[in-house]
């Protein structure tokens, strides 16, 4: 036990420092890119050219880094080969370019890939057995997720729950939580990089009636999560018909640029954080969630880089906002439930999403969030935004 604690206190801290610092640098660059884009919206016209640059670099130099989060999952399930260091700079600059020129994408995938890639580099200097390497990868995922969102508890739980293959190891728990805490501290305290605050000012009583209203909302969040995953996979499959990979994001970039320009839908490009904040405060157009699903699926499915989670937050928060016209619960509460509920259904991580909601919105909303996440998780079916994720045992009563 003593050797175990010493080993993972050291390795976990090192992974936390690396992943937290990488996330901090990424968030600083991402904020700068967003400000430049918003001040010069004409950059959207160059999105196809940016897409070609990303596609060309990944095609000729990316190797298996192009698999992204799925590569991490494959290595978690069955160790095959080291995750290349090139994944870190490639996904970092690929995501920044995507956001700078107006693609609709997130940031979680980038942080998780950087965390996992950097963590795995330690195996080049530190001899580890197969099980310890898996724990190290879990630490990288936990650190990346925790630091990019400012949610250390959810980051650790996400890294453990994300595997979803019924091979949970208790030895992974302490390293995951320790790495997540160190990474979050590094990003926020050492680097001084903060995160967007959210709040649910009004929490209704925990009556049976109020809690029951969350069930139909959760069902809607589950369907939206299923739709998000299916659109992303479908678009990716269609673009794979184009034989030369660098041309895929070129065509995708043309389509995104034309759609956004002629519809004036600039609110849906990039992360969309301002719109997410609005969803907690005022009624929005009911179709916001559909627009974000479509543009994100087109952006990422055609080969641009970035994460899916912030677009999932956008989808869920705006859908919850729309449901407030029919469900007699506070608008902010429904937006918050959708924020984590759609994420839960699309990633099959209801526990992590519930904890994340409590970290972001406060413990008072915990019961509502838990019901929304569980119902969405069950209602989303056997689907995931991660094609390599093992979710066949999702419904334990049928396995």
UniProtKB/TrEMBL annotation:
Q: Where in the cell is it found?
A: Membrane
Q: Which residues cross the membrane?
A: 6-29, 41-61, 135-160, 172-191, 211-229, 250-269, 326-346, 366-385
Signal peptide (UniProt feature, chain positions): none
For membrane topology, the record states: Multi-pass membrane protein
InterPro entries, A to Z: Cl-channel_core, ClC, ClC-type_chloride_channel
Principal localisation: membrane
Per UniProt, the keywords (alphabetical) are: Membrane, Transmembrane, Transmembrane helix
Which Pfam families does the entry mention? Voltage_CLC
Cellular component GO terms, alphabetically? membrane
Residues annotated as coiled-coil are: none
GO MF annotations for this entry? chloride transmembrane transporter activity
Name this polypeptide is given: H+/Cl-antiporter ClcA
């Amino acid at each position: 036990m003593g050797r175990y604690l010493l080993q993972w206190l050291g390795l976990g801290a090192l992974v936390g420092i690396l992943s937290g610092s990488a996330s901090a640098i990424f968030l600083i660059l991402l904020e700068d890119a967003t400000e430049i884009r918003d001040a010069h919206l004409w950059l959207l016209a160059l999105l196809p050219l940016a897409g070609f640059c990303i596609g060309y670099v990944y095609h000729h130099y990316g190797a298996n880094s192009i698999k992204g989060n799925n590569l991490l999952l494959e290595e978690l399930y069955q160790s095959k080969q080291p995750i290349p260091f090139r994944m870190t700079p490639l996904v970092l600059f690929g995501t920044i370019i995507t956001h700078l020129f107006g693609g609709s994408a997130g940031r979680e995938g980038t942080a998780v890939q950087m965390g996992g890639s950097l963590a795995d580099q330690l195996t080049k200097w530190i001899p580890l057995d197969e099980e310890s390497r898996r724990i190290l990868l879990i630490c990288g995922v936990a650190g990346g997720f925790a630091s990019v969102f400012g949610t250390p508890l959810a980051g650790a739980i996400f890294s453990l729950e994300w595997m979803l293959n019924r091979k949970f190891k208790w030895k992974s728990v302490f390293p995951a939580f320790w790495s997540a805490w160190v990474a979050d501290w590094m990003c926020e305290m050492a680097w001084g990089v903060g995160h967007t605050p959210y709040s649910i000012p009004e929490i209704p009583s925990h009556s049976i009636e109020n809690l029951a209203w969350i069930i139909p909302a959760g069902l809607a969040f589950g369907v939206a999560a299923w739709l998000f995953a299916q659109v992303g996979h479908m678009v990716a499959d269609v673009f794979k018909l184009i034989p030369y990979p660098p041309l895929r994001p070129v065509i995708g970039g043309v389509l995104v640029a034309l759609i956004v320009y002629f519809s004036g839908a600039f609110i849906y490009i990039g992360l969309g954080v301002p719109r997410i904040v609005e969803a907690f405060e005022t009624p929005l157009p009911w179709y916001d969630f559909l627009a974000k699903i479509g543009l994100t699926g087109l952006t990422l499915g055609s080969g641009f880089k970035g994460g899916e989670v912030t677009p999932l937050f956008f989808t869920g928060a705006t859908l919850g906002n729309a449901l407030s016209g029919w469900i007699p619960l506070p608008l902010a509460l429904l937006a918050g439930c959708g924020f984590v509920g759609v994420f839960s259904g699309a990633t099959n991580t209801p526990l992590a999403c519930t904890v994340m909601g409590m970290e972001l919105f406060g413990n008072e909303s915990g019961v509502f969030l838990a019901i929304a996440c569980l119902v969405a998780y069950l209602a989303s079916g056997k689907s995931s935004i991660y094609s390599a994720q093992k979710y066949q045992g999702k419904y334990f009563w049928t396995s």
